Recover the amino acids of this structure.
């Protein structure tokens, strides 16, 4: 493995990081002990000190690092699926490069893949992007599709070459997911790859890929790449596509953004 270094709102009248919002260390230790044996039948209330600590840690780097470490450490134990899902949901809020190594192997876990991927997708650090990208080759099925989707949602231009390779797979679900991710990324290189795929993809996929082209055109136009957006319009301006696609193509050719 490469080495990679549910929103919570502040209660009314209380700002993050105030002493009143922080649990005492004994209560927090007890909550982490409870998390080790937490399962489907456990009381969610036993974990409230961790929730409160995370709220406080959003404004305190030292506390944030410590609670992140404790949550990441739990993922390497034999704690239950429910405990690990909880830890992943909290790492989604406060996690960073320090927890990427622990989340990475969970991307291949059928029960925890979505939770780990959601945490990595939310992280702003480049290590999280690299972990998602590096995981692709070793995944299959729903786990692979999920990671492809996350790369698209992160808008990572560096993932374009890796995603383009998945366009060539005979697995139409993977190819469609890769096209969708490229459309979300919306760079010039992504657009050109999608256009090439549009001309060669199976007929059954043509309309799905056409919609992806429109998404990509929106991203291109928003970034000021109007010429590339018009090229997308030319690719779609044929009788092979239904009226709504041709209408969007006409708007692209006129220099307008495609309708949403």
């Amino acid at each position: 493995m490469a080495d990679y270094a549910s929103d919570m709102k502040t209660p009314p009248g209380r700002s993050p990081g105030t002493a009143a919002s922080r649990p005492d260390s004994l209560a927090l230790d007890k909550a982490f002990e409870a998390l080790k044996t937490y399962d489907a039948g456990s009381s969610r209330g036993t974990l409230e000190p961790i929730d409160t600590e995370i709220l406080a840690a959003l404004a305190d780097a030292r506390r944030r690092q410590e609670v992140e470490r404790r949550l990441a450490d739990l993922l390497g134990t034999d704690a239950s699926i429910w405990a690990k899902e909880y830890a992943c949901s909290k790492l989604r809020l406060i996690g960073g490069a320090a927890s990427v190594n622990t989340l990475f192997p969970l991307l291949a876990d059928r029960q925890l893949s979505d939770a780990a991927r959601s945490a990595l997708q939310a992280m702003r650090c480049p290590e999280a992007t690299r972990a998602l990208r590096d995981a692709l080759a070793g995944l299959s099925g729903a786990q692979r599709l999920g990671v492809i989707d996350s790369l698209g949602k992160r808008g990572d231009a560096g993932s374009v070459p890796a995603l383009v390779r998945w366009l060539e797979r005979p697995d139409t679900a993977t190819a469609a997911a890769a096209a969708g991710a490229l459309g979300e990324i919306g760079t010039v290189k992504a657009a050109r790859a999608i256009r090439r795929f549009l001309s060669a993809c199976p007929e059954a996929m043509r309309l799905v890929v056409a919609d992806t082209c429109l998404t990509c055109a929106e991203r291109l136009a928003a970034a000021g790449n109007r010429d590339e957006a018009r090229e997308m319009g030319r690719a779609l301006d044929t009788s092979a596509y239904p009226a709504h696609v041709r209408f969007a193509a006409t708007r692209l050719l006129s220099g307008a953004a495609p309708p949403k």
